Every structure is written in C-alpha cells, then in structure tokens.
Amino acid sequence: MTVLNYRGNAGLQDMNAFNARVQIMWKGDQLFRVYPADGHLYFIRVGGSKQKNAAIGAQFGLLGALMMYFAAKREKKKTQEKLNEIAGAHPSELIASHKLNFALPVEHVTSAEFTPRSFLDGATAGRCKVVDVAGKKRSLSFDDADNMRLAIEQLSPVLGERVKMKVQWDAAKQKYRKV
Fold first, then answer.
1. Could you give the CA distance from residue 171 to residue 91 in angstroms, rounded to a whole number?
2. Pairing between strand 40-47 and 102-105?
3. How far is CA 99 from CA 78, 102, 165, in A?
4. Is 66 helix (H, G, I), strand (E, B) or coil?
C-alpha cells in the first residue's frame, strides 16, 4: 500500500491510486482519484474545481479574498472527508456514486504523455495528456509532485510503451523539468 497525500496531509492508506484534476466542459477542473485496476482506469470524483471561487473573490476585493480563503478551507475539508469515505472501496463500486465518475478501458488508451508544468499552469506540478482510440484527449494536471510521481509509477507498467515521458525529476529544485 502507498501512503497517498492530498496537498501533504491526507495520510490515507488506499489502493494504488493518485489524485489528478481533469478539465470538464462547463464544470471546470474537477479533482479525481484515478485507480488503474482490473484493466481499467477508474476516475472517481473526490473534489470540485479549484478555480470556481476565484472569479467571485476577484470581484469583491478584500472581502472576496476572505470569502475565497474560507471557501478553499471548506473545500479542502470536504475533499478529505470524501477521500476518507472511499478509502478501501473498490473503484468499480464507486462508479455510480457521482455522475462524473467513469472508467476507461486500458486497451482504449492509445497514448499518455507526461509533461512538466508550463509558465501559465500556476500551482500544478505537471500534466499528463491521455488519448483514447476515439481521439478524445483528457488532460490530467497534478496539484503536487507526489501525485505526479505516483501517476508515472502506476501508469507506466499498465500502459507500457504507450507512455511518453517528457519530464525528469530534478532533485535539486524538487520539481519535474522538461527532458
């Protein structure tokens, strides 16, 4: 079992999984727990958009910043509660728990490309672009380097040659950099 962290303090024992944000049309970047299991990649929604309160906060100045702070704190608590709630459950049992949850068969994935964060990515550690046989692209972004490392470790054996690494860990700077 791997100790999984969500921004450092989750401390959960769970199945091999990692957290990633997936951009969903009209809903923003949703936080998913991704489980590579039973020949599928299970995407289980555990949190909402990081950016949803930013627009509101920006419009109300200091009061908005205060509102954003407490909203982010509440969102982090809700995410932690959700992670605790689903810990130990098989991902196939969790698919029906939210309408955004889905499973992607591993044989339908044509490529997965890991890239470092760009200048415009802000606080992400990096990205992984997953492309399926229908040509649909899903961009996974990672809030921290630990989740990106777990994604690389867990997707590489499952997807094999379909994983393209355009990143390398820089121990001196404690981040992923472009190869």
1. 33
2. antiparallel
3. 18, 8, 32
4. helix
Burial class (CB within 10 angstroms; exposed 0-12, middle 13-18, buried 19+) of 172: exposed
Q: Which CATH number fits domain 15-178: 3.30.70.2190, 2.40.30.10, 2.30.29.30, 1.10.3720.10?
A: 2.30.29.30
Which of 39, 22, 41 lies closest to 104, judged by CA?
A: 41
Tens digit of each residue's pLDDT (9 = 90 or more) over 75-134: 889 989 999 999 889 999 999 999 999 999 999 999 999 999 887 777 789 999 999 999
The SS3 call for residue 53 is coil
